[in-house]
């Protein structure tokens, strides 16, 4: 089983792989029974995640990971995503691990910002 520090590194590696459009690395990090939930869809399985949720990350300028808190097999990460067009948003994601694999991610959306101001999010 991975130590808490290793789980934080797995999360950092996932963010880096997503930014690099490295789908193979992301797929390898997910358990076969992986589930993904957001306010737009709940308990999405691994094939559906890659079919419907995975998209080219060329629009992202950078991720600013603010904190990763690991407690056993669970972890929270809060980050700010800055798009190349200057818009940004802040999310928190809840991770559950099965050994060194991510078995679940629940995403909690935060507000969008542009030029220091809140921007209403469209669905």
Automatic annotation (TrEMBL):
Report a single Gene Ontology molecular function: isomerase activity
Record flagged with keyword Cytoplasm: no
Q: Tell me which residues make up the SnoaL-like domain.
A: 12-104
| Stated name of the protein | Ketosteroid isomerase-like protein
Please tell me whether the keyword Isomerase is annotated for this protein.
Answer: yes
Coiled coil segments of this chain: none
Please give the InterPro entries that the UniProt record associates with this protein. NTF2-like_dom_sf, SnoaL-like
User: Keywords of this protein's UniProt record, alphabetized?
Assistant: Isomerase
């Amino acid at each position: 089983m991975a130590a808490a520090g290793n789980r934080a590194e797995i999360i950092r590696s996932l963010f880096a792989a997503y930014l690099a459009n490295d789908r193979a690395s992301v797929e390898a990090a997910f358990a076969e029974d992986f589930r993904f939930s957001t306010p737009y869809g709940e308990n999405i399985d691994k094939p559906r995640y890659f079919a419907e949720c995975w998209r080219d990350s060329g629009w992202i300028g950078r991720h600013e990971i603010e904190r990763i808190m690991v407690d056993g097999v669970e972890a929270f990460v809060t980050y700010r995503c800055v798009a190349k067009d200057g818009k940004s948003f802040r999310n928190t994601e809840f991770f559950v691990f099965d050994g060194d694999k991510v078995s679940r991610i629940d995403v909690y959306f935060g507000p969008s910002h542009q030029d220091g101001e809140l921007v209403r999010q469209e669905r």
